[in-house]
Design a protein that fits this description.
By secondary structure, this protein is an alpha+beta fold. It folds into two domains: about 5-330, LCP protein (Aminopeptidase, 3-Layer(aba) Sandwich); about 355-515. Helix content is about 30%, strand content about 25%. It is built from 14 helices and 26 strands. The strands form eight sheets. Strands 18, 19, 20, 21, 22, 23, 24 and 25 form an eight-stranded antiparallel β-sheet that branches. The longest helix has 25 residues, at about 5-30. It is globular, with a radius of gyration of 23 Å. It starts with 5 loop residues before the first helix and ends with a strand.
């Protein structure tokens, strides 16, 4: 893991997110406007020519499922691949028979065999792009990583537009898991300074959030990008995107390079019909089964971060195939909620303190929560804290070294702040951050706000009634990413880590244990 130079990071990380947002929002809604509109879209896309040597993609039959490879790179059309660098590779699976759009990010540092002069050489997956362009990248993904993978389209995004795109859709309300900080004056890498808590992120801050890789791994960064896409997609209706489609498509056309089939009317109609059909589907994140390998020895004067950072990502072939099967399998509604599933209505778990639920791996920590509430001081919202937290985790505090020094500053842990909704109304809010393992980027959080209907609470996956609380459940695939509870004065929730390390039972038990600070 390395820092991304400021001169290149903007190009690379605006990349795949811009493509996914445009394809997922704008293209889908314009498909229903008829052939004339599709021809206009073709003109936007033709602003950047198709790949000279088209990747070995499998052109799909009309109406069939499709797998799209979204690549973030700094490659300019018409220049040699040897000058290119790719930073993000995301597979998107859309299936008319599925209720979800499946996302699978492939680590840039994945250890693969790359043919150079006919001789296989061990290297990182991102190097394949600079050696052989999209053709070689597709070949390695299909032959070495996922057996049976057939990529239908390749979309490569170069040179930023991400900030413009985020601003064009009105910014994105984001559940920021911890403090993100870096000072360019000290490191010569891009500055970032984002406080923890639920908030609206616009252009530059949104880019800083999704591209941050200073102190965590490819896996955490990929999960952060996928979460951002999920939050963005859930916040905007088709009508909103239709009104902005021309601006969005111009951004896309100016920075995207695709396979030749997407420069044809038939190819666009085929893809857009599928995306339009999938427009109301939720996003399901599939986590790559990464094994983080240690770096070789580094010079004595190297930073401690580099000394602890894996240089390669590996994976067991069998685990890769299991992941690929999950990615390809359509999500279908179950006949009824199964016990232990995120949508089940039964409480699950043994009775815990106060008649709630408990789960293995949790410990009582009401006193620590009370200390956090005292540190917040008086607010315009009642402060609730969980009586249970994960054993071995700790509250981040500006007065301790529990969380990394680069993320600690007065006012961050815990944080009291004002949150503004889209109408400009101000809401009292607070965030408490808990850390499991900062090296692995494992932070989870307690959020409270007087905003009764924030976008993140749109469309819950299910509900459970536990300890007198009606809990709202929000699932990311089979894992709960968030569990919320409403009162007359505010809403409160527990956010899972970016990689969903807390189990469903733990998430429900922690949320059920919310109690008013200073009260019963």
């Amino acid at each position: 893991m390395r820092l991304i130079p400021r001169s290149r990071a903007g190009m690379l990380l605006r990349s795949v997110l811009a493509a996914a947002l445009v394809i997922g929002f704008a293209a889908a809604t314009t498909a229903v406007a008829g052939l004339l509109q599709v021809r206009q879209i073709t003109q936007y896309i033709d602003a950047t020519p198709a790949f000279r040597s088209s990747p070995s993609v499998s052109v799909p039959d009309p109406g069939s499922p499709q797998t799209i490879l979204l690549v973030g790179s700094d490659h300019r059309a018409g220049t040699p691949w040897s000058s290119a660098n790719t930073d993000t590779m995301m597979l998107v699976r859309m299936n008319p028979s599925s209720s979800t759009i499946n996302l699978l990010s492939v680590p840039r540092d994945l250890k693969v065999q790359i043919p150079e002069g006919g001789v296989p050489v061990t290297g990182r997956l991102n190097a394949a792009y600079s050696i052989g362009g999209p053709n070689l990248l597709v070949k390695i993904l299909e032959q070495q990583v996922f057996q049976g993978l057939k990529i239908n389209h390749v979309i490569d995004i170069n040179f930023g537009g991400f900030e413009q795109l985020i601003n064009a859709i009105g910014c994105v309300y984001t559940d920021v898991d911890h403090r993100y900080y870096n000072n360019t004056a000290l490191t010569n890498y891009s500055s970032v300074d984002i406080q923890p808590g639920y908030q609206k992120l616009c252009g530059a801050d949104a880019l800083s959030f999704v591209r941050f890789r200073h102190s965590d791994s490819d896996i955490v960064r990929n999960a952060r990008q996928q979460d951002f896409l999920r939050w963005a997609k859930s916040q905007f209706s088709q009508d909103q995107i239709i009104s902005e489609r021309d601006a969005l498509l111009k951004i896309f056309g100016a920075q995207a390079q695709t396979d030749h089939n997407l420069h044809t009317t038939d190819g666009l109609i085929n893809l857009f019909d599928l995306v339009a059909f999938s427009a109301t589907h939720s996003i399901k994140q599939i986590q790559f089964p990464a094994i983080l390998l240690p770096c070789p020895p580094v010079p004595p004067n190297a930073s401690s971060t580099l000394q602890q950072t894996p240089c390669y990502v590996a994976a067991d072939f069998g685990a890769e195939q299991v992941t690929f099967h999950q990615f390809m399998t359509p999500t279908t509604p179950r006949p009824g909620p199964a016990a232990g599933s995120p949508s089940a209505s039964a409480a699950g778990g043994k009775p815990g303190p106060g008649g709630g639920a408990t789960a293995p791996g949790l410990t009582a920590a009401a006193g620590y929560g009370a200390g956090q509430a005292q540190a917040l001081g008086p607010l315009g919202i009642p402060i609730y804290v969980p009586r249970l937290i994960l054993a071995g985790s700790n509250y981040c505090s500006s007065n301790t070294n529990v969380c990394p020094l680069e993320t600690a500053s007065p006012g961050s842990y815990p944080r009291a702040y004002l949150l503004h909704d889209r109408q400009g109304v101000t809401h009292y809010s607070y965030r408490m951050t808990l850390v499991m393992n900062p090296t692995l980027g494992q932070y989870y959080g307690v959020q409270g706000t007087t905003w009764q209907n924030p976008p993140i609470l749109n469309s819950p996956s299910g509900t459970r009634f536990v300890a007198g609380k009606q809990l709202l459940l929000f699932a990311n695939g089979s894992k709960l990413s968030l569990v919320a509870w409403r009162t007359a004065q505010g809403v409160y929730w527990i956010s899972n880590t970016l990689t969903d390390d807390l189990s469903n039972r733990q998430m429900i038990a922690i949320a059920a244990s919310f109690t008013k600070a200073g009260g019963k």
